[in-house]
Amino acid sequence: METTERASLEHETFGCLTEHELARFKWAWAAAAGIIIWLKAAGEIRAQAEDVRVNSSTDPATPLAATWLAADEIQSHLTALNRFRDEHEAANDKIGQYHAIEIGRLVAAADRNWPQEDKPRKITVMTCGGCNKLTLAYRPPRYPGDRIINSCIAGTSSRQHSTRSQCTSS
Questions:
Q1: Residue 27: inside a domain, yes or no?
Q2: Do residue 106 and residue 146 come from a single domain?
Q3: Distance (Å, rounded) from C-alpha 114 to C-alpha 116?
Q4: Whole-angstrom Cα distance, residue 170 to residue 168?
Q5: Is the terminal CB of the chain with fewer CB neighbours within 10 Å at N or C?
Q6: CA pair distance 104, 129, nearest whole angstrom
Q7: Separation between Cα atoms, residue 114 and residue 106, nearest integer Å
Q8: pLDDT tens-digit profile of 1-54?
Q9: 78 with 155, same domain?
């Protein structure tokens, strides 16, 4: 009986949304305004994930930046959600459910494709000079004037301005 109750709690719905969808919707609704401002200010920047598209049209390409198009799409769903008092009222309405799911998807994609700050990541295009393995990691500066840190995961970090790094492990 306990597993049945636990399973029902894990799949509890809020109106027409699951708990996960509602959590993503709440986050997206709160973050949407900031993301829209960032996307419009950013202008023409490429997404981190390469867009693979086949142009089968003879019409000219859209002259708008992809960031502006994403901001406009998020804004249209945000405008449609303004008729609801809160997230739960939107989740209990079929039209609100559609816009809630879409705004969650769009804001998450915009946050992933056009991040507002540089994030630490693994370097996969060069090997460590010390251990000759793909174990380098990049950590961006924390404040203006701070150094860029490239370090070997297997060894200790080396603070340098360039992308070269040294591993002190044997």
A1: yes
A2: no
A3: 6
A4: 7
A5: N
A6: 42
A7: 12
A8: 455 454 444 445 567 788 888 899 999 999 999 999 999 887 776 655 555 555
A9: no
